[in-house]
Amino acid sequence: MKHRAARVVLIGLSAATVVLLAMAPVAHALSVQVTTVQASLEGPSDAQLLPFRPRLRRLVGYRAFRVIRVESRPCIWRTQEAFVIPGGRLLHVLPKGMREQAVVMQVQLLEGLRSLVDTDVRLQNRGVMLFGVDPERGPADGVLIIMLKAEE
Amino acid sequence: MTCAEAEQLLDSFVDAELPGSMLLEVARHAGSCPACDRAVREVTTLRESVERVVRREVEGVDLSGVWPAVERRIGRSGTRGVWRHVPRQLPVWGAVAALAAGALLWLRTPQPETVRVTHARPNQAVIERLVSSEGARVGIMKDRKYGTTLIMVSAPGEDTAQ
Fold first, then answer.
1. How far is A1 from chain B (nearest CA, A)?
2. Strand ranges (DSSP E) for chain B?
3. Collapsing DSSP states into helix, strand and coil, what is residue B131?
């Protein structure tokens, strides 16, 4: 009976150790947030985008901005993560390291199997950079904006 | 009114979304400040250019293919329910194995390079390499005030010049 109890405790402790070890990489990982925004000529803008509205306005020329998808997750250094972008696209993010308070990463935007753009960027820690995708049928559909934020 | 205050109201001013008294204040400030006047003109020109292109595009839109495409999508979405039948509970040992794999992954996880302290704008991004697919048009724009970088991509075969 004593042996059985000891075995149960041992298994419990082992499982707890494994869980703690498994949680550790998450704590050391880079946090990446990908927000997909639909920009259009007219209509309301989401409140969460109001701080970005002036610069979005200046950069893309549209005046209404709605969030259509937000995905945030920890990414492990030198491990590629895929973020789903509406419209059959994927954003591959491969964080490589920190340099001068900036996150060095490879970012690839795919449409199906085709790579639209593949770039190495150095983004200021906690900074935001944007990718814009022109609509398939022209600017009347608005523009898809992908906001990429990285935080160590 | 200061330039910073006018800058905050610039977009709403161009869109005529401000109350009358505020519109007047911004207009007065822009009338006496060449920098703000230039900023107003830039945003107005950009807006007009986008509107012009959109108007042209809308005139040429062909909607005849919309319903066939919607029907096709409806047909496809019906096949997605297969994943609901995946069992919810995995065997305990499978979970333990996954955790052990996580621990192994942690042991092999490389740490980031050393941080060197410098000062930079919060959203500054430096493009070190950029490759686009054949025929794709790529433009890089930077916001002067915040340093935010935009990489604009037009897929091949599209006519989206603005």
1. 23
2. 125-132, 137-142, 149-154
3. strand
Q: Which of A124, A121, A139 is nearest to A42 (CA)?
A: A139
Q: Find where tokens 């990982």 sit.
A: A29
Contact assignment for B153 to A133 by CB distance below 8 Å: yes
- State the Cα–Cα distance between residues B13 and B23, nearest whole angstrom: 6
Q: What is the largest CA-CA distance in chain B?
A: 74
Give yes or no for A43 touching B (CB within 8 A): no
Confidence band for B160, pLDDT divided at 50, 70 and 90: very low
Interface confidence, given as ipTM, is 0.80
The answer to whether A103 touches A148, Cβ cutoff 8 Å, is: no
In chain A, residues 71-110 whose CB comes closer than 8 Å to chain B: 76-78, 95, 97-102, 104, 109
What does the pLDDT look like over B79-128, one tens digit per residue?
666 556 556 665 677 888 888 888 887 776 665 555 444 455 666 888 99
Residues B146/B147/B149/B150 CA torsion (nearest 10 deg): 40
**Is A26 in the B-facing interface, judged by CB distances under 8 Å?**
no
Domains of chain B by residue range: 3-59, 122-155
Largest CA distance in chain A: 75
B43, B107, B120 ranked by CB distance to A58: nearest: B43
**Contact at CB, A140 and B11, closer than 8 angstroms:** no
